[in-house]
Amino acid sequence: MIVTLKISGKFFDDENPTNLEIIKKSVLSLLNSGHRVAIVTGGGGTARKYINLGRKAGIKEAHLDLLGIWASRLNAYLVAFYLGDLAYSKVPESLEEFIEKWGYGKVVVTGGFQPGQSTATVASLVSEATNSDLLVLATNVDGVYDKDPRKFSEARLLSRLSTIELKKILELTQSVNAGTYELLDPLAIKIIERSKIKVLVVNFKNLDKLLDIITGNISIGSLVLPV
Amino acid sequence: MIVTLKISGKFFDDENPTNLEIIKKSVLSLLNSGHRVAIVTGGGGTARKYINLGRKAGIKEAHLDLLGIWASRLNAYLVAFYLGDLAYSKVPESLEEFIEKWGYGKVVVTGGFQPGQSTATVASLVSEATNSDLLVLATNVDGVYDKDPRKFSEARLLSRLSTIELKKILELTQSVNAGTYELLDPLAIKIIERSKIKVLVVNFKNLDKLLDIITGNISIGSLVLPV
Amino acid sequence: MIVTLKISGKFFDDENPTNLEIIKKSVLSLLNSGHRVAIVTGGGGTARKYINLGRKAGIKEAHLDLLGIWASRLNAYLVAFYLGDLAYSKVPESLEEFIEKWGYGKVVVTGGFQPGQSTATVASLVSEATNSDLLVLATNVDGVYDKDPRKFSEARLLSRLSTIELKKILELTQSVNAGTYELLDPLAIKIIERSKIKVLVVNFKNLDKLLDIITGNISIGSLVLPV
Amino acid sequence: MIVTLKISGKFFDDENPTNLEIIKKSVLSLLNSGHRVAIVTGGGGTARKYINLGRKAGIKEAHLDLLGIWASRLNAYLVAFYLGDLAYSKVPESLEEFIEKWGYGKVVVTGGFQPGQSTATVASLVSEATNSDLLVLATNVDGVYDKDPRKFSEARLLSRLSTIELKKILELTQSVNAGTYELLDPLAIKIIERSKIKVLVVNFKNLDKLLDIITGNISIGSLVLPV
Amino acid sequence: MIVTLKISGKFFDDENPTNLEIIKKSVLSLLNSGHRVAIVTGGGGTARKYINLGRKAGIKEAHLDLLGIWASRLNAYLVAFYLGDLAYSKVPESLEEFIEKWGYGKVVVTGGFQPGQSTATVASLVSEATNSDLLVLATNVDGVYDKDPRKFSEARLLSRLSTIELKKILELTQSVNAGTYELLDPLAIKIIERSKIKVLVVNFKNLDKLLDIITGNISIGSLVLPV
Amino acid sequence: MIVTLKISGKFFDDENPTNLEIIKKSVLSLLNSGHRVAIVTGGGGTARKYINLGRKAGIKEAHLDLLGIWASRLNAYLVAFYLGDLAYSKVPESLEEFIEKWGYGKVVVTGGFQPGQSTATVASLVSEATNSDLLVLATNVDGVYDKDPRKFSEARLLSRLSTIELKKILELTQSVNAGTYELLDPLAIKIIERSKIKVLVVNFKNLDKLLDIITGNISIGSLVLPV
Ligand SMILES: Nc1ncnc2c1ncn2[C@@H]1O[C@H](COP(=O)(O)OP(=O)(O)OP(=O)(O)O)[C@@H](O)[C@H]1O
Ligand SMILES: Nc1ncnc2c1ncn2[C@@H]1O[C@H](COP(=O)(O)OP(=O)(O)OP(=O)(O)O)[C@@H](O)[C@H]1O
Ligand SMILES: Nc1ncnc2c1ncn2[C@@H]1O[C@H](COP(=O)(O)OP(=O)(O)OP(=O)(O)O)[C@@H](O)[C@H]1O
Ligand SMILES: Nc1ncnc2c1ncn2[C@@H]1O[C@H](COP(=O)(O)OP(=O)(O)OP(=O)(O)O)[C@@H](O)[C@H]1O
Ligand SMILES: Nc1ncnc2c1ncn2[C@@H]1O[C@H](COP(=O)(O)OP(=O)(O)OP(=O)(O)O)[C@@H](O)[C@H]1O
Ligand SMILES: [Co+2]
Ligand SMILES: [Co+2]
Ligand SMILES: [Co+2]
Ligand SMILES: [Co+2]
Ligand SMILES: [Co+2]
Ligand SMILES: [Co+2]
Ligand SMILES: [Mg+2]
Ligand SMILES: [Mg+2]
Q1: Residues of B (144-173) whose Cβ lies below 8 Å from A
Q2: Do F96 and A106 touch (CB under 8 A)?
Q3: Which chains touch D (3 or more CB pairs under 8 A)?
Q4: pLDDT at C176 over 60
Q5: Confidence at residue D178, expressed as pLDDT on a 0 to 100 scale
Q6: What CATH number does the domain containing E100 carry?
């Protein structure tokens, strides 16, 4: 089984190695059971810092996107170096390069690729190129809610939904300003649909149970099915 | 004034150099009046040939996109070599590389960048990165119609419209399968909106009047205004 | 045993996946018997289209060669993507890069390298660098004839000949204009001679019997022996 | 006159664009007077964050250096994008690449190059390669003190000193752990000495007076003379 | 006027800077008169040393060619660094890269490109790509003789000859073993013919008179005319 | 066990393949016992030739370093090509590239990386990045002496010493002029100390006994212990 794991950049924001350990443990459990893993890291606080500073200084959107991409690559290097021999040591800078590195058989860790493309879109392209059975979005909420749970306390968790339902939910919250893409943008969803990729949205702190979730032993988070 | 010129790939499909001559004449007239020009070429028939062959053979979407991108780069090399000293001789393979090459002061010709991104999105990113005053879409119809003019003969040309109106018109005709993006996709429009880029849709055969259109002497095609 | 397989670009000219299937079947039979395979693809109709268009437009020979090389790389990507995990996913752009990629153990697919070098010369350099036991030229005739069989119906097939004889036969038909190199040019033959590479010229449609030919079970095509 | 400007990474640490404006103003005043400028940025807080996190997680020194280098490049991109057309848009990743980019005539902004090399050493190599008349170290103290002024309040500012004196002062405070290089390390000083480069250590907030300092109108900071 | 200057590698073989000075003086005189110059350097003694050592050790021909190419690039770097600001500081590794660098307007210095290609062929490709009016071969004899003048003392200098005559003269002396290409090989001549490039063979020690030769003031060496 | 082997460039100076054979034999014995090997080659006579010629011609130190680095890479290619399939065929040009190549599992051969960095520093960085158990310096003397043995005949060999003692011994003999770094420079020693790398200085002609030395069967040369 092939799994693409998208990790929100916010999990690299403090100077505590616990989150790195969670990632490694989860990756190791998958590898030891014979699965392959691709990892996409978001830009998190570092991205936001440089984008905010740049925007205040008057730098243009395409260049702000590039700052965010370089920040996400810093997170990717952190993960790749921490995984050591398990991972390819160079962070690819385009899907073509990703595909080339993926051919060697190791975990490949990547950040963003191109301005105008969220790391969620990167994750969907990586899922497509690797023929992934599952795209896992590890985030700071327990799954997909009918509203943004950070803004509305009455939001309800959906354990199973279609991409059409997801699109409706996300429609109002989307933006393409650098640094503000959330969860999944319309392009990411289109790619998920064109290649029929299953998506699991799960709380980062449950990553250690990923193998159990995948094998169907337990059911946590939200499963999004392409239509 | 800075102009990004997006040329549909179909204008490289026959073995007649006339279309190349039209492009050169139009570029020269702009350069001679002190403007700067970036060019984005579509993949046209070559892209379609390789994508169709690949799809029949069972190659996956992300890789089909790559074949289409390489085809669009072939068209870009053709234009760059034909422009000779006026153009940068290497076709950039990402927005970062485009920005670097653009710094030298010549015309830069590019094809596609990344799977999941139409050459229309490339053109909008290039417009953004170059701070273009105008994005010109040179195509095989006279402008934006209220319906796809190739399919509906009663379609009416709109000489001026907003991106909101454009989105509504295009909504039904869009697809993200490799090789089937048309005119402008939602992501291209979002980028146009976030950076307030004006778009002119014009018939390829009127490219020789581009300088007159830009300076407001004549009014041809459709002007799309971002909101 | 190591085999370099040079496939004429014309086998990628129509939108039918049969030729791709023939290549894959032939490669698989070799790999499954423990052999290694390098593939060199010609530029075919795509190369001719761009070279003709470019030449009419007045583009110079070295740049026409480059257009042809990019076209041959498009064919190489098609083959590499179709072979999937069997092949290295990036098409090398020089012999140095080829050698590097070859080190990973997969099939490596390449198009042209440099202006002034036919893909036949590329194939002979690849044979040399990989220490190939055999260079197979898959073409649209049944082998080497004493005259060009497309022009002279009385041409006689030679089942075994030396490079000296081959040179005499080819002498009159050679040209170095971009896109017109035929079968084997003098430089390709010199490289074959300096490294004592055996060459098999065989009809493309017999590629499925390659394993049998190599193991000496059947004898088809022409064997060219270096002197 | 050619000036290499080394800016401590800590000046990119808060989300206020003032420091960027100081840099741009200072660079513009030099360019407008006909001078050329190279810029080297330190890694600052971003480097320290990733190095600390990585070290706690057990990542090795050479790889921690790489994280710090990528962080310093993020600062370099921020400066390069903010300078816009004045600067080369790509941050070089080695001295060879720096030299190549420097040839185009623009400001070139660089971060770190190699593990084991502080950005101060990078700045001395850049001074050497560009044949700089002056290496300016813009830092958070008013110049070189006879002791580290952050630790000893009785430290005295030296307005003029030799590299021999500097070496003695710095001897005790040096370390080669990733992220802890200070002001100038022994290798940076050796390079300064072998190519006889003059060094000016100056408070960052006085950068706007750089042109006056250079032309000898005013005298601020410490001048270090190679022996 | 555009001039490609091919300098035999043997002029970099001793530790005396005189030959570098001759090259610089000759280049400067051409540049100051408004001409453009491309330089191709041979591998000389360094190439021969590594090729001989490698061949004795059993390294294969294609790899020996690569050693010779790296040696010729060392000579190219020496010339480029010595020319300083007049020359592009990076030695291109392929014709594509050469063309890209040539676009910046400086002297570009290159060594070899690809195994199986002599630096004489490189020089003819460079002449073609730059649209050179003249290819100058600076060598250790006074021009083309009717026999190899190093072997036959009765050899007669030819002040004017066609490429057909040249081919006949060189026919017997050619070889494609790495490191043994002489003056002009058949492929170099074919390229010269297909693009109608004039060739001047001249003694290296007369390079200082190059401007006079080009402007027709004096007549030295042999002029080879393509047919 | 992981071993980094630094070979002085002077062992590639004559046209005799014996030294290559010694290296291969020693590498093979290590690989066959399950160890991994990284190799760093010095620049030797080729470096000195180009650096001397360049310095006489007035080329600057940073550029002379680059010439020396290219020469050391020529030696690295020679070793890599001679080792054939055992080694990675491309010589890395930075530590980042080295780390990437090292991930494939083969021997990686490298020359210099950056101006201002001796190949001894490269070797210490490579030891650090590969987590080497031992850094072996193969040189033309029998180990570390209390004085430079080439200059003082009364010099005494030290079979065991600390990096502090080594620093004292080497202090007077060090220089940072291109081409004159000796044995170990201060930066190399600092890296050895920060990552606690054991160093063995051994006569090149004893390389064939390396496996025995490593396994503690025999004791030759000097062991330097980091403090
Ligand atoms: N309907 C919804 N259900 C769940 N989450 C939602 C929903 N709408 C918006 N969100 C927001 O999406 C966020 C998840 O996106 P996340 O931050 O993990 O990815 P990211 O933005 O790409 O990360 P980063 O940019 O920091 O790397 C949640 O914190 C939540 O606030
Ligand atoms: N409402 C509309 N108005 C105008 N054109 C439309 C509309 N809807 C669809 N189209 C189609 O869009 C096409 C223009 O897209 P065009 O082919 O120029 O770009 P492209 O698809 O990127 O080109 P290529 O992929 O061949 O390089 C027209 O031929 C037209 O059929
Ligand atoms: N004798 C001294 N005189 C002046 N400063 C000294 C001295 N000794 C140590 N320092 C320290 O050197 C520091 C300057 O180094 P600075 O932080 O500017 O460069 P840096 O460490 O390379 O920056 P960064 O790594 O954050 O990019 C001062 O803050 C000061 O504390
Ligand atoms: N008929 C001929 N006329 C002139 N020179 C000839 C002839 N035949 C052979 N040569 C040889 O060609 C040599 C010139 O080639 P030259 O060494 O300049 O180029 P090169 O071999 O490419 O240089 P390098 O490989 O050393 O860089 C002369 O020294 C001469 O001996
Ligand atoms: N105390 C010492 N003990 C041993 N060797 C010493 C000492 N001091 C100086 N040396 C010198 O160091 C030399 C070893 O350095 P070596 O030439 O092997 O490395 P290198 O200079 O990096 O090689 P290259 O630059 O030629 O590649 C010996 O030849 C010796 O003369
Ligand atoms: Co986000
Ligand atoms: Co289209
Ligand atoms: Co052909
Ligand atoms: Co610091
Ligand atoms: Co020669
Ligand atoms: Co030395
Ligand atoms: Mg994000
Ligand atoms: Mg050395």
Answers
A1: none
A2: no
A3: A, B, E, F
A4: no
A5: 56
A6: 3.40.1160.10
Q: Please state, in angstroms and rounded to a whole number, the distance separating the CA atoms of residues F176 and A163.
A: 63
**Reported confidence tier of residue F92, pLDDT bands at 50, 70, 90:** very high
Contact B70 C73 (CB under 8 A): yes
E183 CA closest ligand 4 atom index: 15
In this complex, is the C-beta atom of C101 within 8 Å of any C-beta atom belonging to chain A?
A: no
Shortest Cα–Cα distance, F18 to chain E (Å): 8
- Looking at all shown ligands, the one closest to residue B10's CA atom is 2
What's residue C7's pLDDT? Answer: 97
End-to-end CA distance of chain A: 21
Answer whether A20 sits within 8 Å of D57, measured CB to CB: yes
Q: Domain span at residue D30?
A: 2-225
Atom 23 of ligand 5, residue of closest alpha carbon: F8
Helix axes D119-129, D95-102, angle to 10 degrees: 40
Query: CA gyration radius for chain E?
Result: 16
Tokens 């003029």 locate to D160
Residues with CB under 6 A from ligand 1: A 8-10, 42-44, 119-120, 139-141, 144-145, 147-150, 169, 173, 181-183
Distance CA B137, CA B121 (A): 12
C62-92 burial, b if ≥16 CB within 10 A, otherwise e? bbbbbbbbbbbbbbbbbbbbbbeeebbbbbb
Is the CB of F148 inside a 6 Å radius of any atom of ligand 5? yes
Report the separation in Å between the CA atom of A78 and the middle of ligand 9, taken as the mean of its atom positions. 20
Q: Find chain E residues with C-beta within 8 A of C115's C-beta.
A: 95, 125, 128-129
Domain count of the fold of chain E: 1
Ligand 1 atom nearest the C-alpha of A75 is 27
- Ligand 3 atom index nearest CA of D150: 31
pLDDT for position C147: 81
Q: Looking at the complex, does the CB of residue B40 fall below 8 Å from at least one CB of chain A?
A: no
Confidence of residue F170 (pLDDT cuts 50, 70, 90): confident
Mean pLDDT score of chain D, rounded to an integer? 93
> ∠D216-D199-D98 over CA atoms, to 5°?
115
3-state per-residue secondary structure call for chain C = CEEEEEECHHHHCCCCCHHHHHHHHHHHHHHHCCCEEEEEECCHHHHHHHHHHHHHHCCCHHHHHHHHHHHHHHHHHHHHHHHHHHECCCCCCCHHHHHHHHCCCCEEEECCCCCCCCHHHHHHHHHHHCCCCEEEEEECCCCEECCCCCCCCCCCEECEEEHHHHHHHHHHHCCCCCCCCCCCCHHHHHHHHHCCCCEEEEEHHHHHHHHHHHCCCCCCCEEEECC
Other beta carbons less than 10 A from residue D69's beta carbon: 24
Please tell me the distance in Å from F177's CA to the nearest CA on chain D. 7
SS3 B157: strand
The β-bridge relationship of strands D160-162 and E134-139 is unpaired
Closest ligand relative to B142 C-alpha? 2
Q: Give the span between the Cα atoms of F226 and A58, in whole angstroms.
A: 51
Reading the block at residue F201, the tokens are 């200085």
**Residue E47 contacts C, CB cutoff 8 Å:** no
Separation CA B77–CA B56 (nearest Å): 28
Mean pLDDT, chain B, rounded, equals 93
CA distance A177 to A63: 11
pLDDT at C168: 87
Contact (CB, 8 A) for E45 and E74 = no
State the 10-residue block means of pLDDT for chain D, 227 residues long.
97 95 97 98 97 97 97 98 98 98 97 95 97 96 89 91 92 57 84 96 95 92 95
Taking the Cβ of residue B69 and every Cβ of chain C, the question of whether any pair is shorter than 8 Å is answered with no
Q: Is A58 assigned a ligand-binding role in the annotation? A: no
Q: Please list every residue in chain C whose beta carbon sits closer than 8 Å to the beta carbon of residue F89.
A: 99-100, 102-103
